[in-house]
């Protein structure tokens, strides 16, 4: 495993690979790695000759200083986990100044409607921060393919839009959500939950499965309302921020009825104490 903190060293290694016409994949992460990340590396392995895993807690995508401060940073464990599972990975684990220099600020992007829904509504500036780091990572690594989990489905659509806007030549690949035994979507933030809390947070997936079952049997707005009520009345651990049923392409929230030609997904954001969890599911 090769570990680089500087762009120059990393880029020299990548130039060598490109000269040999190797397909380079990028798995961007913020560390605190878990099986979900390994599943992204696994997918990358199927279709790439060389894989770069970036580990960088990106400050500009946090709209809340305490969330950034509490975000788990476990670089040594992350490297050990990757080393144990894969022999030939290239790791890029830069410091903030390697990416941002003296000015830790976001560029502004026009992601259109995609950025105004759900995460965009509740996390001001989040997607500009995500766009900023990914544009820079794509420029540094020049990957042929980049891999993202569908847990952050809105992010996945934003990244596809980013690549269009910036005309970067990278194929963006969405990968299935990796889940705990009780269905809770795997997330680095789960490291801040106890085993009991993880058990209780499985309620999010229960609700998504319920919504999937109900979708199409009655008006979608009633399904949404019912799920919101379940959150309020069936448990007192999770604090719901939003439950939304939206067009899976535009992310516009559904109005009455639905168009059978379109794909829809249900999306949830909820707090487990001060840990913010998100998840989603395809409904049709
Ligand atoms: O999904 C994440 O972990 C982050 O948003 C990403 C894509 C690594 C950018 O910092």
Description:
With 284 residues, the chain is α/β, with parallel strands linked by helices. Helix content is 41%, strand content 19%. It contains eleven helices and nine strands. The protein has helices at 7-19, 35-47, 65-70, 75-85, 96-100, 118-122, 126-141, 153-166, 195-201, 203-214, 220-233, and strands at residues 2-4, 24-29, 50-55, 90-92, 145-149, 171-175, 238-247, 264-272, 275-282. The protein has a six-stranded parallel β-sheet with strand order 1-4-3-2-5-6, with helices on both faces. A three-stranded antiparallel β-sheet has the order 7-8-9. It is globular and about 55 Å long. It starts with a strand and ends with a strand. Pantoate binds at residues 28-30, 58, 61, 130, 133-134, 152, 155. It is an enzyme of class 6 (ligase). ATP binds at residues 30-37, 149-152, 186-189. GO terms for molecular function: ligase activity.
Distance between the termini: 41 Å
Query: Count of helices?
Result: 11
Mind telling me the CATH superfamily name of the largest domain? Answer: HUPs
Beta-strand content:
15-25%
Question: Radius of gyration, Cα only, in angstroms?
Answer: 19 Å
Q: Could you name the CATH class of the largest domain?
A: Alpha Beta
The ligands found in this model are: pantoate
Q: Please summarize the sheet with the most strands.
A: 6 strands, parallel
CATH topology of the largest domain: Rossmann fold
State the secondary-structure class: alpha/beta
Total tally of structural domains: 2
Number of strands: 9
* Uncertain residue ranges: none
Oligomer: single chain
Please tell me the overall pLDDT: 96
* Strand adjacency order, main sheet: 1-4-3-2-5-6
- Annotated CATH architecture of the largest domain: 3-Layer(aba) Sandwich
N-to-C order of helices and strands: EHEHEHHEHHHEHEHHHEEE
Report the helical percentage: 40-55%
Organism: Mesonia aestuariivivens
Pfam families: Pantoate_ligase
Subcellular location: Cytoplasm
Function: Catalyzes the condensation of pantoate with beta-alanine in an ATP-dependent reaction via a pantoyl-adenylate intermediate.
């Amino acid at each position: 495993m090769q570990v680089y903190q500087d762009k120059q060293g990393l880029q020299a290694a990548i130039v060598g690979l490109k000269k040999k016409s190797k397909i380079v994949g990028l798995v961007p992460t913020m560390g605190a790695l878990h099986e979900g990340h390994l599943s992204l590396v696994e997918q990358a392995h199927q279709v790439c000759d060389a894989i770069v895993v970036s580990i960088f807690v990106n400050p500009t995508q946090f709209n809340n200083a305490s969330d950034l401060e509490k975000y788990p940073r476990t670089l040594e464990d992350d490297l050990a986990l990757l080393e144990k599972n894969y022999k030939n990975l290239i790791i890029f684990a830069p410091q903030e100044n390697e990416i941002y220099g003296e000015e830790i600020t976001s560029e502004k992007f026009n992601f259109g409607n995609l950025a105004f829904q759900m995460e965009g509504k509740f996390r001001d500036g989040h997607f500009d921060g995500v766009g900023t780091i990914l544009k820079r990572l794509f420029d540094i690594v020049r990957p042929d393919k980049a891999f993202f989990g569908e847990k952050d489905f809105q992010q996945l659509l934003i990244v596809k839009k980013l690549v269009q806007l910036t005309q970067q030549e990278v194929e963006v690949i969405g990968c299935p959500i990796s889940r705990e035994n009780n269905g809770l979507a795997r997330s680095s933030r789960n490291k801040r939950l106890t085993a009991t809390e993880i058990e209780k947070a499985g309620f999010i997936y229960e609700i998504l499965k319920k919504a999937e079952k109900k979708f199409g049997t009655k008006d979608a707005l009633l399904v949404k309302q019912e799920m919101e009520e379940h959150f309020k009345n069936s448990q007192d651990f999770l604090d719901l921020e939003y439950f939304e049923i939206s067009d899976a392409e535009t992310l516009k929230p559904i109005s009455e009825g639905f168009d059978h030609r379109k794909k829809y997904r249900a999306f949830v954001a909820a707090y487990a104490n001060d840990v913010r969890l998100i998840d989603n599911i395809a409904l049709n």
